[in-house]
Write a structure and sequence with these properties.
InterPro entries: Alpha-ketoacid_DH_E1_comp, DH_E1, PdhA/BkdA, THDP-binding. Pfam families: E1_dh. GO terms for molecular function: magnesium ion binding; oxidoreductase activity, acting on the aldehyde or oxo group of donors, disulfide as acceptor. Its cofactor is thiamine diphosphate. There is one protein chain. By secondary structure, the protein is of the alpha/beta class. The protein has two domains: about 290 residues, Thiamin diphosphate (ThDP)-binding fold, Pyr/PP domains (Rossmann fold, 3-Layer(aba) Sandwich); about 30 residues, no CATH class. About 40% of the residues lie in helices and about 10% in strands. The protein contains 13 helices and seven strands. The strands form two sheets. A five-stranded parallel β-sheet has the order 1-2-3-7-6, sandwiched between helices. A two-stranded antiparallel sheet has the order 4-5. Strand 6, helix 9 and strand 7 form a beta-alpha-beta unit. Helix 1 runs parallel beside helix 12 and helix 6 runs parallel beside helix 7. The chain is globular. The N terminus and C terminus are likely disordered. The structure holds thiamine diphosphate (TPP) and magnesium ion (MG). Thiamine diphosphate binds next to strand 2 and strand 4. The site of thiamine diphosphate has 15 residues, from strand 2 and strand 4.
Length: about 400
Amino acid sequence: MTTDASHDFTRPTTGTFSPANAGTDEPPLVQLLTPEGERVHHPDYDIDLTPEEVKNLYRDLVLVRRVDLEAVSLQRQGELGLWASLLGQEAAQVGSGRALTDADMAFPTYREHGVAWCRDVDPVKLLGMFRGVNHGGWNPAEHNFHLYTIVIGTQTLHAVGYAMGMQRDGAVGEDGSATIVYFGDGATSQGDVNEAFTWASVFNAPVVFFCQNNQWAISEPLEKQTRIPLYRRASGFGFPGIRVDGNDVFACLAVTRQALKAAREGQGPTLIEAFTYRMGAHTTSDDPTRYRVATELEAWKLKDPIERVKAYLFKNRLADQEFFDAVDKEADVLGRDVRKRCLELPDPDPLAMFEHVYSEPHALTAEERDQFAAYLAGFDDASGGETR
Ligand SMILES: Cc1ncc(C[n+]2csc(CCOP(=O)(O)OP(=O)(O)O)c2C)c(N)n1
Ligand SMILES: [Mg+2]
């Protein structure tokens, strides 16, 4: 191998280097609630929450986790084709989701069940999509929550386009709307995401890039996506980046609220890196024991997003056992209800798959639909479904 003095080949490529702690002058991530449930203060990102608001956040976290658990079970029982669990990422999703106003628009990946909850999307609609009985499940315009996007990173471009549209319609400003887009650590390696950063930056688009760095992109660790902490990518594009404790619902709420406000006020985009961990498998088709060690999981368990809010409420006598029992009971009722309604979802009309391919009638799609209808009609004859 040739060496070139102008390049630094001395940096380690494996082992000691970690984008989680790169550089010695790395500021600590924004945190307002420690894993032990101690409230800490931050000079730039503080937040005042009433006991009622904290209890509501706790309730959101517990209910969202319960829906997720129920979905994993349903998949295991053969009732869903697939499920992407949010386990461990509840605070990042509920904190950012609750920072949104009704007028704001959100673009999710396939894992944002907690944000969907905050946008009042019925969880059964999410399950329907993973059961393969609907085409996405909800009307994005009704919830200001776009459909789930499986193609990694592409929704960042949709979001920037949407935000630029709002900007041109004059729909931003203090009481107007901002756009938030969710993506993962792996997505930051996609061209789409980097293009979205460029466009958002140069057009000063009112958009918040919310990256849930859950440390893994299926079996690829963070080290294979970046040599610097992800939030620092933003400075190269010309807008601020901030790293927040993604397991701290208070901090996620505070930081996202501020970034959305800045977007509305014409200050352009912000990249938020929510530093968190995917506690479950990538999806129900994945087995993470094949590529990651159990000690990593154990370390993150101690940073659980729900336990720290519970500890905070307990320590400060803001809630008693009765409250926690009532939330658990509500979660049980919700879990049972979601399961029941999922199993009752009707199978779709087979021809429905040809609807909504294009917004207007399309000759080729119509031809394919007619061919398929004729094929299906072959099953109706007296031969019991035999076609020749
Ligand atoms: C363009 C594209 N390439 C590859 C895939 C396959 N794929 C699905 S999820 C995933 C990893 C995404 O990781 P990350 O962005 O960190 O999100 P996470 O799943 O961890 O939430 C990949 C590569 C895809 N869906 N789309
Ligand atoms: Mg990831």
